[in-house]
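Severity: low
Component: inverse-folding endpoint
Summary: output formatting inconsistent between runs
Steps to reproduce: submit the following structure tokens with default settings.
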């Protein structure tokens, strides 16, 4: 499995020692990822659910993300995501590196230093400017990755609060807004 994955994604690596695969469905595959890559670091970037779900809803994913097209689908997916992450947190302990998007956007350097330390990597100032990094980005957020780190997307859901009220209410009813 590891060999097949590396062959399929070789164009992204360009000879680098490390690569990041940030597909939303990876949450379901953490166990398989750890079996195929026992030394893999699993990084969970948490995000305020309304912003994260709005972002997913705005992206036109190709196949496998049917949950992203309806408010009910978004709420159900998020609830399952939280349940899965609780499970992986219990299984992986310190093998799961977590950080909050909002903290990263507000004050990137300490968050990036903490992340790199958890990965056993030294801090480099270039990490504060991911928009300057060479290499391919093959995800729906490729434009965002090529922008400087900022907090401009924090609270973006509020612009659509009226339209997203059914989602907010369902998340609250599910207990998913208490974090």
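Observed output (run 2 of 3):
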């Amino acid at each position: 499995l590891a060999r097949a994955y590396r062959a399929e994604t070789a164009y992204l690596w360009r000879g680098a020692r490390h690569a990041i695969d940030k597909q939303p469905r990876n949450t379901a595959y953490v166990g398989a990822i750890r079996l195929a890559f026992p030394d893999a670091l699993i990084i969970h970037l948490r995000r305020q659910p309304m912003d994260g779900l709005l972002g997913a809803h705005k992206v036109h994913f190709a196949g496998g993300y049917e949950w992203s097209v309806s408010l009910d689908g978004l709420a159900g997916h998020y609830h399952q995501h939280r349940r899965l992450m609780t499970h992986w947190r219990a299984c992986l302990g310190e093998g799961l590196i977590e950080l909050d998007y909002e903290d990263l956007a507000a004050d990137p350097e300490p968050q990036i230093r903490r992340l790199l330390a958890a990965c056993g990597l030294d801090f480099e100032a270039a990490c504060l400017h991911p928009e300057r990094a060479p290499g391919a980005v093959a995800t729906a957020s490729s434009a965002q990755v090529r922008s400087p780190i900022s907090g401009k997307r924090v609270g973006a859901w509020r612009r659509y609060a009226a339209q997203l009220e059914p989602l907010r209410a369902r998340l609250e009813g599910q207990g998913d807004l208490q974090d």
